[in-house]
Amino acid sequence: MSDLDFALEPTLESVVLHDSLKWVFVGGKGGVGKTTTSCSVAIQLAMAHPAEEFLLISTDPAHNLSDAFNQKFGKDAKKVDGLANLSCMEIDPESGMADMALQAQSQFNNDPNDPLGGMFKDMTGSIPGIDEALSFMEVLKHIKTQTAAPGAIADVAAITYKTIIFDTAPTGHTLRFLQLPSTLEKLLGKVQTLSNKFAPMLSMLGGGAAQQQQTQEMLAKLTEIQSQVTEANNQFQNPELTTFVPVCIAEFLSLYETERLIQELISYNMDVTSIVVNQLLFADSTEDECKRCVARWAMQKKYLSQMDELYEDYHLVKMPLLGKEVRGLANLKKFSKYLLTPYDPVVNGGLVFDLEDAK
Amino acid sequence: MSASPLTSADKARVLRERRAAKMALGTDRLQKILNDGGSLKVAKPVIEAKSVAEAPVAVATGSAHDFHDDPETSDISGHTKPSDTELMNQLLGSVGSAPASAASDDAFLGLFGNNPEMAKFFSADADGTGAGGLFSSFMNPQTDETPIDPSVSEEERAYQQQLTAFHKYNLTRYLCVFDIAKTVLLVLMFGWYFFTTDAPFASSHRHVRFLTDAPKAPQVDTLHTFHRWFLMFELAVQSTLYIALSSKFDSDSYQSDSYLMKGLNFAKGLGFLKPTLVQKLFSVVKYQVILKSFMADVAVLVVLLGLWSGFSGL
């Protein structure tokens, strides 16, 4: 066996035990178990590095983190009960836009009854991509925290998280989110170029020193955002800092979409090293009396063998379909263990019916 | 003697290169999945072929590649990893120089909620050297209207520009010759009419003529008659001009230079005018060459009448 024939373990050890990872995206088609997997990854990361802080953000407009942990989360990071170094956040576009409108109002027009404020909120709340934009703004905030000098951040509650895990929306939304850094960088570059061209004309048109100062502040802010966006772009394309974990099931459509997803991620220079195949039945005919499960397992095995061929250079993690919902910290801990240790249906088969009832 | 074992960083790098090399097969892999799944669909490429080919790894080329085979080995000893700047340029296209890739244009489309007018507004390079668009025509109103195709080389572009300039020169020369000929005919017609008519400025009403020195005959040729001659002349001349322009020249070449057309396009792009109204205005504006020619003849006529009245002492 030559040095180039690597045996890749079917686990997520390369993700959980990786020292330098800052961003972990978990995504895939709807209903494959993204939230369960992202929660499991976050839990394992938190348990592997108890001295570090981790943050799990849901960018899916149909948030599920609260249901997964049986605990209410909101737009502000909140610690998970029972796991002190893991926090969760569900980004809410409506309140995010309300905050922005409030900020803009206080800066430019202090009239709380300004009808334009309400119109702004109504309009922007329905813009396609607004969820992704707000999630990305959260990313920029954390980049700012990470790159700022100690003590430079005014917000004393700002925490520097070792790794931020994203429970992403179904594939299309996520790809749009991942395009944002490149798109924004180009857009901001053009805005800068235009502002440089028009600055002399604008100053000629007058508006006074206060107006010019406001313009200067706005341009300075744009420059700052541009550098943060560039930094985000660089980090997302650095395999030492960012990885994407696609989640799929052993079915035709899921396999096809996963392949398309990975091809598109690679075109964005985003690193993909591991794939999670979820909801596997492991129903061997000799041991299982359920004919449906046996038939379905036979179908899954066909696609699994295809995946073994297609993804021989990836860590292909095979996770079982359990008898109950994987909800609550205790159940998630039991389930997430098999992200690091390959699931053996013979040895670990007891897990299928070992979960606590969801409350 | 075996080579020294690879470090984990080397292993990771080799694995990344393998993955990228296999993913470069792109549509083939997708088609295999579809065939194995018994689907009737034909796989569409996820990304443009050129952006896959630009990936900084050795790509399996040439004949059909079976998934069961190992990827073709390539000598990576001399291969250098592209710099961050090169990777960024591959992903984005440089601002202000290389044209945007289809992927980033689509991203613009997505960013603006699939509004193609807004995406076009921003996807044009502000310096006008990228893909053409509304914004580039606003920034550089003097430059050629023809949008620049990013797949066209510099030489081709220069050739196209020279060809366009040549067409414009031809059109200008044609219009000049036509205008000169038309003006000469108009002057001759004017001269023939006024030198052969007894009282060219007489009233067409007989009872008014009785009050003056004008001929008292029941019917005389007057200015009213000349106007009819003039209108018939214009009808013939302008129709000839329109037919000649339509047959000899592409309508874009004698319409696209118009600031009026550019202004209407820009107003439409910004949403100041409805597209249906702009289309109606276009259908009027496209006859502007004819209108200009007619107005020029009217101006010549006014000058001639003024000169005649001055010299004839009316």
From TrEMBL, chain A:
Transmembrane segments: none annotated. The keyword Metal-binding applies. It is found in: Cytoplasm; Endoplasmic reticulum; Golgi apparatus. Residues 22-340 form the ArsA/GET3 Anion-transporting ATPase-like domain. Keywords: ATP-binding, Cytoplasm, Endoplasmic reticulum, Golgi apparatus, Hydrolase, Metal-binding, Nucleotide-binding, Transport, Zinc. The active site is at 60. It comes from the Eukaryota. One of its GO terms (cellular component) is GET complex. InterPro entries: ArsA/GET3_ATPase-like (IPR025723), ATPase_ArsA/GET3 (IPR016300), ATPase_ArsA/GET3_euk (IPR027542), P-loop_NTPase (IPR027417). One of its GO terms (biological process) is tail-anchored membrane protein insertion into ER membrane. GO terms for molecular function: ATP binding; ATP hydrolysis activity; guanyl-nucleotide exchange factor activity; identical protein binding; metal ion binding; protein folding chaperone; unfolded protein binding. Its main location: cytoplasm. Homodimer. Component of the Golgi to ER traffic (GET) complex, which is composed of GET1, GET2 and GET3. Within the complex, GET1 and GET2 form a heterotetramer which is stabilized by phosphatidylinositol binding and which binds to the GET3 homodimer. Interacts with the chloride channel protein GEF1. ATPase required for the post-translational delivery of tail-anchored (TA) proteins to the endoplasmic reticulum. Recognizes and selectively binds the transmembrane domain of TA proteins in the cytosol. This complex then targets to the endoplasmic reticulum by membrane-bound receptors GET1 and GET2, where the tail-anchored protein is released for insertion. This process is regulated by ATP binding and hydrolysis. ATP binding drives the homodimer towards the closed dimer state, facilitating recognition of newly synthesized TA membrane proteins. ATP hydrolysis is required for insertion. HAMAP family: Asna1_Get3. This is ArsA/GET3 Anion-transporting ATPase-like domain-containing protein. It comes from Babjeviella inositovora NRRL Y-12698.
UniProtKB/TrEMBL annotation, chain B:
Pfam families: GET2. GO terms for biological process: retrograde vesicle-mediated transport, Golgi to endoplasmic reticulum. Keywords: Membrane, Transmembrane, Transmembrane helix. InterPro entries: Get2/sif1 (IPR028143). The chain crosses the membrane at residues 174-195, 226-245, 289-311. Residues 63-82 are annotated as: Disordered. This is Golgi to ER traffic protein 2. It comes from Babjeviella inositovora NRRL Y-12698.
